[in-house]
Amino acid sequence: MVDIATRVYNHKWKVDTIVHSLLDTDFYKLLMCQSVYRNKPDTTVTFSLINRTKSIRLAELIDEGELREQLDHIRTLRLSRGESTFLRGNTFYGKRQMFRPDFMEWFEGLQLPPYHLEKHDGQYELTFEGKWPEVMMWEIPALAVLMELRSRAVLRTMGRFELQVLYARAMTKLWEKIEKLRQIDGLKLADFGTRRRHSFLWQDWAVQALLEGMEGKFIGTSNCLIAMRREVEAIGTNAHELPMVYSALTNSDAELAQAPYQVLADWHEEHDGNLRIMLPDTYGTEGFLARAPEWLAKWTGIRIDSGDPATGAETAIRWWRARGEDPREKLVIFSDGLDVDKIAELHGQFAGRVKVSFGWGTMLTNDFRGLAPNDGLAPFSVVCKAIAANGRPTVKLSDNPNKAMGPVDEIARYKRVFQVGKQAAMDVVV
Amino acid sequence: MVDIATRVYNHKWKVDTIVHSLLDTDFYKLLMCQSVYRNKPDTTVTFSLINRTKSIRLAELIDEGELREQLDHIRTLRLSRGESTFLRGNTFYGKRQMFRPDFMEWFEGLQLPPYHLEKHDGQYELTFEGKWPEVMMWEIPALAVLMELRSRAVLRTMGRFELQVLYARAMTKLWEKIEKLRQIDGLKLADFGTRRRHSFLWQDWAVQALLEGMEGKFIGTSNCLIAMRREVEAIGTNAHELPMVYSALTNSDAELAQAPYQVLADWHEEHDGNLRIMLPDTYGTEGFLARAPEWLAKWTGIRIDSGDPATGAETAIRWWRARGEDPREKLVIFSDGLDVDKIAELHGQFAGRVKVSFGWGTMLTNDFRGLAPNDGLAPFSVVCKAIAANGRPTVKLSDNPNKAMGPVDEIARYKRVFQVGKQAAMDVVV
Known about the structure:
Two copies of one chain form a homodimer.
Chain A: H1 4-11, H2 27-39, E1 44-51, H3 58-61, H4 64-76, H5 81-89, H6 101-108, E2 115-120, E3 123-131, H7 132-135, H8 139-155, H9 160-181, E4 189-191, H10 200-213, E5 218-221, H11 224-230, H12 241-248, H13 253-270, E6 277-278, H14 285-290, H15 294-297, E7 301-304, H16 309-322, E8 331-334, H17 340-350, E9 355-360, H18 362-365, E10 382-389, E11 392-393, H19 408-417
Parallel strand pairs in A: 4-5, 4-9, 6-7, 7-8, 8-9
Antiparallel strand pairs in A: 1-3, 1-10, 2-3, 10-11
Helix pairs in contact in A: 4-8, 9-10, 12-13
Family (chains A, B): Belongs to the NAPRTase family.
Domain Nicotinate phosphoribosyltransferase N-terminal (chains A, B): 23-146
Protein name (chains A, B): Nicotinate phosphoribosyltransferase
């Protein structure tokens, strides 16, 4: 018998909102936001959505009105009392009161700033401009909205049983991955899949599946809301936007060369232990490590986010040894382009030589490859990056030239300043 | 745990369609349609929606786009193979092959004709013009759509728990009615509530509740689709549109005076037994019976659809006696403005004196009075009537002057021709 009230409730929705909370974002955004709020609160920054998979014509798939509804809805969100209590009271990385009272007060009053949306050549041009601490909070929800609206556009064409089978297959697929991964002794793995998830509910399901299936090898999620709801650790430290914006703000090549270290000096002030994880690839890992100040070798670990991950890890190991550090005491977090085989391979290569951990993203929360007609639900590569700071363009090089971004002449200048030589190009899948 | 496939299915609906079948209509429409298809197939008729409850400003409550989507969807409907098999193979009123093969063939090809929709003074002007057999099939789905869109407009403002409580209360209310009604010995009652139902699902629930609760006193439903699905009798005979259109087509007062009897003469040709039920009130019951031909007194029964029902029934009883008929052998069907108390009262007054049956409508399928804020879900009085035939206006007088419709001069002429004297005005609630 039909439950009429539930039936009416389910179908009366005008807008099925995607992001329901300001905490539905990656934890490192909050850590970085607090740092920015302290160190660079008045910097004007522009974030921009960039769909690197040009074959997916988002503006043709996704209705502009629907997109605006979702973005407008996000602008109505405020940190709720319970969310604030969680941030103020919870232990993050073993530390209480990770978030300072002045930051929390600011966060409680935060409304995300306006967005600017245009269509161009089948793609959306979505930009956010304003004070850095405010604008930066758009990145993850904007990506999640784009990803989920694209999923919905495809799901809309599918029948009820197709949907049942789709999710049954997706669940089976993920569960089989978990069954393989849990056989790896000593594995430590976190969910890093918020930004490219198939949908919120799917990420939430994935976290619950990991929690049940990974037998303690699942260490947490980058998603702050899911961490709160499922009572797991919130995971994350810092990202490229910090060196990108710090660098854009410099006034000379000499200042520029120091900017990535200035970021970490500010971070050093604020955090210790497992939060002292450097992300060395923004302007090339080799050069970054070669020129790094002594104190950085004391940091807890490194995150490898572009280029060949094994090469990056070997580079770090050599560097630690050269600086008199014991790599076995150091943490290497792999977070780029991971799936089961790559995780197993990297774990086999590095476990014991360093402490290893994995931030598993897209292939955890959006591996719908082969599950929909015309592979319409396969994940794709969309990012939302700081492209300008105080009117100056930002640059990212990374260890993969296919991930480089910024004006051509500035890229050339950054390559010169950071002494980046020839880089191996790798396909960017997701 | 959320069933993601079901969740996605529930919320991806662009249009939650209201009418899903050409059989989601009253059974008498099909009987009348077959009669019209045989006797007056080329008559051009205009049907028009009339909201008698002016305080309900439908065009402000209901979005025009949503209304058009629902009406457009109805135009995509065709009789399905299973539905055709049901109509061809089922027994209706104890008779097989009620629907002739030529009619069925026509019905299988039927697409409802275009509609014309305008807004005026907070109301919708919704008209249908075309061949009578096609246009007449719009009446019930058009009404059902208007009623349910109005329900939805109000339901949309309610929260999940409000909805649970709303339907819990509505179910309780209806069940209590059933508990009272089933205590009436010998009661025979049918669902006549399609046109003013709260929603399709609610009517379907009401029929199932009657089926379980009425202990054999529930004899069927006017809704052809629900009759098919729930395997109960489809109930209904004929309605005012037949004498209204027949009358409009006449060329003299003398022809006009005979038109209502011509309708029943055509019906007499086609049907016998329990389908020979006359509806005498179109131009006043008193005069209709007084001037009726002898053969009409032999008919099985009468349906009382306006005016004071007890008065109407007493008039019929006197008339049968005067014509030498035994009223105890005759069937009186009450179908106007019924609820539990009125049903009990009429049953008490007439059971034994005549065979009594009830066609329970709005207060069965839409008694949401007092259940929503500002009584926003209380039923209201909307009809969809034939207003013109071959370019001439139709007229209805009925036994309640508040239900009269047509141009003023034509009403006066009809009153003269049918010798209608003073009538008692009664409020039209639903």
